[in-house]
Write a structure and sequence with these properties.
Blueprint lengths: L1 H20 L2 E12 L20 E11 L2 E9 L4 E3 L3 E14 L2 E2 L3 E23 L4 E23 L2 E12 L9 E14 L2
Antiparallel strand pairs: 1-2, 1-10, 2-3, 3-5, 4-5, 5-7, 6-7, 7-8, 8-9, 9-10
Length: about 200
């Protein structure tokens, strides 16, 4: 427990220092869906289960440090459970950390171009709860490293408030539970930018 508190303290100090140096800080919430190859297109060691469909809420935040360059992080998950091979309830979750390039496009728009790394966490739900020293869960996770590329365009409609249509490509390592090693999430976010634009 002390190690987690120590790590949390270091991260809090780091992000506080980052926030004070940032030229622009933004936060957004959005909803989208995942596009992926169909179950019938599975090849090699991939399962005949597709990641396609469902509503995916997402939270994101970014800091621009130097001109149009910064960092961004986000998390997205399937809002409702789906059934794996028609039997087991599951829910995928994606999280990533990225470098960001955000050039202005006129006076009311800004591009968001991101590339980074993260993970896909697939939660397979069980009919019982497992407890350890920290928490209790009713699922087991299968985690996969992934690369991430994203693009979006922010339109500032009122002060720092913006809407952002966006697309994200996930390149998922050893994603054998599903029909492909990649998935695309498309959607839109509403957000707010603090600081100069």
């Amino acid at each position: 427990m002390k190690k987690q508190l120590w790590l949390f303290g270091i991260l809090a100090v780091f992000f506080s220092a980052v926030a004070m140096q940032a030229q622009q800080i933004s936060a957004a919430f959005g909803v989208g869906t995942v596009l992926a190859p169909s179950a019938s297109s599975a090849t090699g060691n991939h399962s005949s289960q597709s990641l396609r469909g469902g509503a995916y809420p997402a939270f994101s935040g970014d800091f621009l440090f130097h001109k149009n360059f910064g960092v961004m992080g986000e998390v997205s998950w399937r809002a409702s459970q789906n059934f794996y091979q028609g039997n087991f309830p599951y829910r995928p979750l994606f999280w990533d950390f990225n470098g960001m390039y955000a050039p202005k496009i006129g006076t009311k728009a800004q591009a968001d171009l991101t590339a980074g790394i993260g993970a896909e966490s697939i939660r397979f739900y069980q009919g019982f709860t497992i407890c350890n020293g920290f928490s209790c869960t009713n699922y087991v996770s299968s985690n996969h490293f992934m690369g991430h590329f994203g693009a979006g365009v922010r339109y500032y409609f009122h002060g720092g408030a913006f809407i952002r249509p966006e697309a994200h490509l996930y390149l998922i390592r050893n994603n054998f539970e599903f029909s492909s090693a990649y998935a695309v999430r498309v959607g839109a976010s509403l957000g707010y930018t603090f600081g100069g634009r």
